[in-house]
Specification:
single chain, mainly beta, Porin, 4 domains, seven-stranded mixed beta sheet
């Protein structure tokens, strides 16, 4: 099945649906990332394959690159909570590439897979899309294969794409660029057409003649069916696929647009430790790359990206902060490669851990920088950059870049603690970067959550959820209203469990990177009674609500530094709220508030829920309305009845007055 996707994402933006198009708008109602393609999704477990319904995908979230930012992202999500994540990376030479990751729960598609296990399928190589001011276009068929393992089973997703257009940077006025980077497959097609058109016909004999400098205008196969060969890039352009022929490759086949080589794929996450005795005192981990801008031999500017080697291939030294010291340092010295050394300097400023500067020494006399004018680059990037409270670690899984005009330190799955490391491990608490937390909604989004096991969707819950959470600000006691955003995942639950001896179901909703909301539903029958076929539950209700959360400066205004990174959990137990009959849903438009203890409350409006459902549909059954809604609904007929009664009285009075006047007139006559 094919779907047409157009997506764009920006923090705190609004998703607008226009027919089959999906557009995410920024504050100026303009798109900042555009993805359009006809695509077929084929999911396989190695034995069986299923075609996913692409029409069910909608824009789920992401982040646009603004200014000089080098990373952008977009995610597409379907009704089964599958997520296709696209990450766009702009290299220092302005070349843009995109990587694909697909998060899927195989149990939804293949029988016998444990739930709610999920697996991330990763691409086998990034797609190069030209430079940051260009629109990538490829009308020819393309195949992107993503793979991943779960419990010994290899899963794959194949994206068969045609009519593809992508732009992730520098979209002006909401319109994609007129400067188009054409994929090599389209270039081959264009070259073949041009070659065919260049064939002339002898006016005398009617025979066709062809210029000897052009290759035969054929499909990229030979007459005997041999495969085409791929000519690697030597001038920074995409590799060109050439028909298997003895004719030379001519300039008519060369790409019309020249960009630098694609950046290398990031290495797996590594951990780098500065040791004090037998324990670590400074820890930094992640997948790291270094972008370098240098002077070329022709005095123009060049750039490239190199990977920071894994921890097993480097020596780590540094300086730990003593009791009265506020500085620390980490130095990475690779055993081989382009990077000779990297040093990171940290300092505590007003109880905050800062990256005050970092430097790198890079050898330019290598294949990575063949056109460099000098042999070596040694440069320091000066901050400072606030990380986190000095007592906790700083985390940024989504990735960010610390840079100036010469060097860029590109990080993913980043975590660092430069002070107060105890027992050689990261602290229990940490502070998330803004990219991980995601956009904080200005209004309360209306969301729908559902949980299924196998082919059975047992829980559906929709509504606007907002928490009132107390905390300590720098000015004293305060509270913050925080909503469940539209970017969330259903990460767990159960259709068949028990709670306090009663048959129960539950759902787990994860948002803001690490917050978990768990809602439990219980029936009116005990587990022992329900073991017999003659006993069935007749009613159910919300029986327990739990919220796991952490304090961070992104969500809590002016929070006291000592609270940053603190993790908390509150739970309301033994509830018997919002009872409804089995096979029916419960609906309430007015606000319903749950006290979750410790001064924290949860308010839900415009909501409807149903548990203990049967079947594979997310539709609600007939609703039992809450008393507040019933009162509201009764106001209208009462008002109408009162108005009608008043009208009848007015008519009667007018009639009586009229009769009285008629009688008086008759008596006068």
């Amino acid at each position: 099945m094919k779907a047409n996707f157009i997506g764009a994402v920006i923090v705190c933006a609004l998703a607008v649906v226009q027919g089959s198009e999906y557009v995410y708008l920024d504050g100026n109602n303009q798109s900042c990332i555009v993805v359009e393609m006809d695509v077929t999704f084929t999911l396989s477990n190695g034995t069986n394959s299923v075609i996913l319904d692409g029409n069910n995908f909608t824009v789920g979230g992401g982040d646009c690159a603004s200014g000089s930012e080098e990373i952008a992202s977009m995610s597409l999500q379907n009704s089964k909570e599958d997520i296709l994540a696209l990450t766009f990376l702009k290299a220092a030479n302005r070349a843009v590439s995109v990587s694909f990751v697909f998060a899927v729960s195989p149990s939804y598609y293949f029988p016998g897979v444990p739930t709610p296990n999920s697996v991330n399928l990763n691409d086998q190589g990034d797609l190069v899309m030209g430079n940051d001011t260009q629109l990538y276009e490829c009308n020819s068929p393309q195949k992107i294969t993503l793979t991943g393992d779960l419990e010994g089973v290899n899963y794959s997703l194949v994206l068969d794409m045609t009519n593809t257009q992508i732009q992730a940077f520098n979209i002006q006025g909401g319109n994609v660029s007129s400067d188009v980077f054409v994929c090599s497959a389209d270039q081959m097609t264009t070259a073949a057409i041009a070659s065919t058109e260049s064939i002339s016909t002898n006016p005398t004999t009617g025979a066709s003649t062809q210029p000897t400098t052009e290759p035969p205008a054929t499909k990229p196969t030979t007459a005997n069916g041999t495969e085409p060969t791929t000519i690697p890039s030597t001038n920074g352009t995409e590799p060109v696929t050439k028909p298997a022929t003895t004719e030379p490759l001519t300039t008519s086949e060369a790409p019309t647009t020249t960009v630098g080589p694609p950046p290398p794929k990031p290495l797996d996450k590594s951990t780098y430790r500065v040791m004090e005795g037998s324990e670590a005192c400074l820890i930094m981990e992640g997948s790291f790359q270094l972008s370098v801008t240098y002077m070329k031999k022709d005095n123009s500017s060049g750039s490239g990206i190199v990977n920071v080697p894994e921890s097993k291939n480097v020596n780590v030294t540094g300086k730990c902060a003593s009791v009265n010291d506020t500085t620390s340092q980490l130095t990475i010295t690779p055993k081989k490669g382009d990077i000779k050394s990297m040093t990171f300097n940290f300092e505590i400023v007003k109880d905050k851990s800062q990256l005050v500067s970092w430097s790198a020494e890079v050898s330019l006399n290598s294949t990575s920088f063949p056109d460099a004018k000098g042999d070596e680059l040694n440069h320091t990037v000066k901050g400072p950059i606030n990380l986190s409270d000095a007592k906790v670690y700083y985390k940024c899984d989504a990735g960010e870049t610390f840079k100036d005009e010469t060097l860029g330190f590109i990080v993913k799955q980043f975590r660092v603690q430069a002070f107060n490391v105890e027992s050689g491990k990261f602290s229990d608490n940490g502070e998330d970067c803004k990219q991980d937390v995601g956009p904080v909604p200005k209004t309360i989004p209306s969301n729908t959550f559902d949980f299924r096991e196998g082919n059975n969707t047992c829980i559906v819950f929709k509504g606007r959820i907002q928490f009132s959470i107390p905390y300590m600000s720098k000015k004293g006691n305060a509270s913050e209203l925080i909503s469940v955003p539209s970017e969330f995942n259903v990460t767990g639950g159960s259709c068949n469990t028990t709670l306090n001896g009663y048959l129960s179901q539950n759902i787990v909703i994860t948002f803001y990177d690490s917050w978990n909301l768990m809602i439990f539903f219980s029936s009116d029958g005990k587990e022992t009674e329900l073991l017999t076929a003659a006993t069935k539950p007749t009613k159910y209700f919300i029986s327990q609500i739990q919220l796991d959360y952490d304090y961070n400066s992104n969500l809590f205004i002016d929070i006291e530094d000592s609270m940053v990174g603190e993790k908390k959990s509150v739970v309301a137990t033994n509830l018997t709220m919002l009872t409804t009959n089995k096979d029916k849903s419960y609906m309430c438009n007015k606000a319903t508030t749950f006290d979750l203890h410790d001064g924290l409350s949860m308010a839900v409006t415009d909501f409807q829920y149903q548990a203990f459902k049967d079947g594979n549909t997310a539709k609600f059954g007939d609703a039992n309305e809450c008393a507040g809604d019933e009162d509201t609904n009764s106001i209208v007929p009462i008002a109408v009845g009162a108005a009608l009664a008043g009208l009848v009285i007015i008519v009667l009075i007018a009639y009586l007055i009229g009769r009285k006047r008629s009688r008086s007139g008759y008596e006068q006559v």
